[in-house]
Amino acid sequence: MRILVTGAGGFIGRHLVDALCAHGHTVVCTVRRQDASLPRGVAALVADLTAPDIHAHLLASVRSIDAVYHLAALLPGGNTTAHAADAYLLANGVTTARILQAALSWGTQAFVYASSIGVIGRPVQTPITEAHPLQPLHPYHVGKLCGELACEQVRLAQGLRVTSLRFTSAYGPGMRQDSVLPLFIRKALASQDLTWYGSGERTQNFVHTADIVQALLKALDTKFPGVYNVGGPESISMRDLAQLVARLTPGYHGRVCPAGIPDAQDDFRWEVSCRKAQDYLGYRAGVSIEKGVGECMASLVATPHRGRMAD
């Protein structure tokens, strides 16, 4: 197939492009800047997907496309006010609608959208299924939800085979370095104390990039398009995560203890059900958190300055 991947320069995008090439597909990528790290033979189109004329630009620059993976997004920074709310709506909502229109113009067979489990907001029902109420708390997730709704509208009204995947916390070699897991790993490698906020009982579900790519590939051929949760095999509390990282770190001699700082999300339990993806996509998370943490640790030891996430 001839496949377009937006956001190919990002953390997940790079892994997906490698997998598509390995499966023999012809890949065309959109990137915000020239990226020499893309595999040989992959065509790269430098484009601002938020530009008003992006639909026309894509149609003029790219010939027919069989399938689209839309991964590009404006990501939240450490400061939740880093971008205005309308910037997230444009980059993650309006842009998705424009890419969908381009896909319809190409006569695309399948469209796969990278959404986020964060569109639900605060978990109020466990396990978290695709029917969980949607009350996003951050403008990033508002934009992601708008993109998801645009996908559903096109799927239902236009008949395009569109699948939205709500990923939990993505991790793996090359992941962004401002999230809890790499912070724990870097501190452990330096034998610094590993501490958690609040009770340490807040749980999180981490999904490895290998499992994300598995789900993305299965979504390409599915006969059951729609919205799916995609998570790891188990959730883990912040306390248990700190203890796991300490145990896997050779020669670690720091403390593993509470920080004595309240956690505003102390009661959040990200117990995510992937039953629908298992039943209809054939998705099975295969990378345990212990195996994945060990792999991330080895990657950071080998390349300590690696880990910028682009979009």
Brief account:
The strands form three sheets. The protein has a seven-stranded parallel sheet, sandwiched between helices. It has a three-stranded mixed sheet with strand order 7-9-11. Strands 8-12 form a two-stranded parallel sheet.
* Secondary structure tally, helices: 9
CATH H-level superfamily title of the largest domain: NAD(P)-binding Rossmann-like Domain
Strand tally: 12
Secondary structural class: alpha/beta
Distance between the termini: 24 Å
Largest sheet: 7 strands, parallel
Structural account:
With 311 residues, the chain is of the alpha/beta class. It folds into 2 domains: 2-171 and 208-230, Rossmann fold (3-Layer(aba) Sandwich), CATH 3.40.50.720; 180-204 and 234-270 and 286-302, UDP-galactose 4-epimerase, domain 1 (Alpha-Beta Complex), CATH 3.90.25.10. It is 37% helix and 18% strand. The chain has 9 helices and 12 strands. It has helices at 11-22, 54-61, 85-106, 139-158, 180-189, 209-221, 238-248, 275-280, 289-302; strands at residues 2-6, 26-31, 43-46, 67-70, 110-116, 161-167, 169-171, 194-196, 203-208, 226-230, 235-237, 256-258. The strands form 3 sheets. The protein has a 7-stranded parallel sheet with strand order 3-2-1-4-5-6-10, with helices on both faces. It has a 3-stranded mixed sheet with strand order 7-9-11. It has a two-stranded parallel sheet with strand order 8-12. Helix 5 packs across helix 9. The longest helix is centred in the first third of the chain and has 22 residues, at 85-106.
